[in-house]
Amino acid sequence: MGRRILLVDDEVAVLLTLKAVLEISGFEVDTAASAREGVSKLHTREYHMLITDMRMEHDVAGVEVIRAARTAAYHPVVALLTAYPVAEEDWQEMGADQLLVKPMHTRVLLQQIEDMIAAHERMFAEQSVANSSPASRQSAPPRRAGSGGRARPPRRRRCWWPRWQCRRRSGP
């Protein structure tokens, strides 16, 4: 069985394009054209990853889908797909593991997806090994509030501009 991804976006062209790219790359892909449909699919099947648009029926429809994914027992990787970049603190508070800004190059997207899934699988493997050893039961790492106990992904750059523009903008 290939790794299963759920794509949630109200733009059919984006859904079909991403679905084709991901299926060619060996992923099993389900799609949902609304937040309500996405939440429903999250409850009926297990997914390795969720990629959701932020703005669909209303401005925060993507947050509803992310919340549903965070309450799922199988803990999928969550990526927020948007054409409107938001601050890192905002999308992390929403519960997303990664922000994907469209449009983006196909190779970059596939590499980011592979990296996120691999990091997620490593994290859960380390947690299961740590939970099985007697020493780890004495001092467990602190849990992140609102994330179901999942560790926070590594911090990314605060600015979405290219590095040379970021330095220039951060001046007085």
- CATH-defined architecture: 3-Layer(aba) Sandwich
How many beta strands in the DSSP annotation? 5
Counting H and I runs of at least 4 residues, what is the number of helices? 6
Low-confidence stretches: 168-172
Helix content: 40-55%
Structural class: alpha/beta
Distance between the termini: 54 Å
- Characterize the biggest β-sheet: 5 strands, parallel
Radius of gyration: 17 Å
What best-fitting shape do the alpha-carbon axes yield?
globular
- Read across the widest sheet, the strand sequence of neighbours is 2-1-3-4-5
Mean pLDDT: 75
- Percent of sequence in beta strands: 5-15%
Short description:
The protein is an alpha/beta fold and 172 residues long. Helix content is 44%, strand content 15%. It has helices at residues 12-24, 35-44, 61-71, 88-94, 106-132, 163-169, and strands at 4-8, 28-32, 49-53, 77-82, 98-101.
Distinctive features:
172 residues, five-stranded parallel beta sheet, globular
How would you portray this structure in words?
Helix 2 runs parallel beside helix 3. Strand 1, helix 1 (12-24) and strand 2 form a beta-alpha-beta unit. It contains 6 helices and 5 strands. The radius of gyration is 17 Å and the shape is globular. The chain has a single domain (4-132, 146-169), classed as 3-Layer(aba) Sandwich (Rossmann fold). The protein is α/β, with parallel strands linked by helices and 172 residues long.
